[in-house]
Design goal:
The chain has about 290 residues and is of the alpha/beta class. It contains six helices and 15 strands. Strand 7 and strand 8 form a beta hairpin.
Length: about 290
């Protein structure tokens, strides 16, 4: 199993050389299994790069599972221009929990229509399938090729979702928990996320919201995000050996990020910032495209 980070920012994409090394796009990641199945999590502006990486890795593939954690614009802005919609050879299965009474089908249909877009979803030639995920799946994972998918709700304004992707054949597992405000989560929500990280065995990698640190969080209480210290503590409490901190603030420059990461690694060397373009494979160094 391998992972590609197409976008790691929150809020909105940026366009300035000062942001280049961390990346300019908002959240979208690609997970590819050893038996050539592909799962995309979130569809921010980084979805463009995710699709390019997908067709590079699996040029013959024509089906993908697209999971959305929630529907804030920084996580769905890439949906209208997603290239797979425009190719009749492709099948796109889009899945989400019901978030604020909306399904992923509601969101895609409403975004891909005038006045927001010149075409409607019905005019796009790909085969489209939509799936509603139950509130949580800790006891009943969904099978997708050689991968299994679990999820649970997160504390975030309007709601959000954490996902766990397991590959039983390799023993690898990735947990994605962006857009999480740990400080405001009740114990039920915290226990669900702990279980997602730890069961049936500790995940190999935790990708977690670390937008703030302990000094800056209070000024942003209620905004829906966590500190990097909380992300590290979650990994350590659940036995996850590696952390990638994500959902970087749009104003975080590369110089800021370097200083920020130095503090993080001093606290725990197994934690680093997620960067756009990074490729992760368990047991191997991260590479950058």
């Amino acid at each position: 199993m391998k992972l590609f980070f197409g976008g790691v920012r929150g809020g909105y994409p940026v366009s300035d050389p000062a942001f280049r090394s961390v990346g300019m796009d908002t959240t979208s990641i690609l997970i590819v299994g050893e038996t050539d199945e592909a799962i995309i999590i979130d569809a921010g502006s980084g979805l463009r790069g995710v699709f390019e990486q997908l067709v590079t890795w699996l040029p013959e593939l024509r089906t993908v599972l697209l999971c959305c954690s929630h529907f804030h614009l920084d996580h769905v802005a890439g949906l209208p221009a997603f290239k797979a919609w425009y190719d009749a050879a492709w099948t796109v299965e889009a899945a989400s929990r019901i978030i604020g009474e909306l399904t992923i089908e509601d969101v895609v249909t409403s975004m891909i229509q005038p006045p927001w877009w010149p075409l409607t979803l019905d005019q796009l030639p790909a085969t489209k399938r939509f799936r509603i995920l139950d509130d949580e799946s800790l006891q009943a994972p969904s099978v997708y090729g050689g991968l299994t998918l679990r999820w649970c709700p997160l504390e975030h304004p309007g709601g959000s979702t954490a996902f766990r992707i397991d590959e039983p054949a390799s023993g690898q597992a990735i947990v994605f928990a962006s857009d999480l405000e740990w400080a405001l989560a009740d114990e039920t929500r915290r226990d669900q996320l702990r279980a997602l990280c730890a069961q049936p065995q500790p995940a190999t990698l935790l990708i977690v919201d670390g937008q703030y640190d302990e000094e800056t969080y209070e000024a942003h209480r209620g905004w829906g995000h966590s500190t990097w210290q909380e992300g590290i503590a979650l990994a350590q409490a659940t036995g996850v050996p590696e952390v990638k901190l994500t959902h970087h603030a749009p104003h975080l420059t590369d110089a800021d990020a370097a200083a920020h990461e130095q503090r993080i690694q001093t606290a725990w060397p197994a934690a680093t910032l997620a960067r756009q373009g990074d490729i992760w494979t368990a047991g191997r160094p991260v590479t950058t495209t």
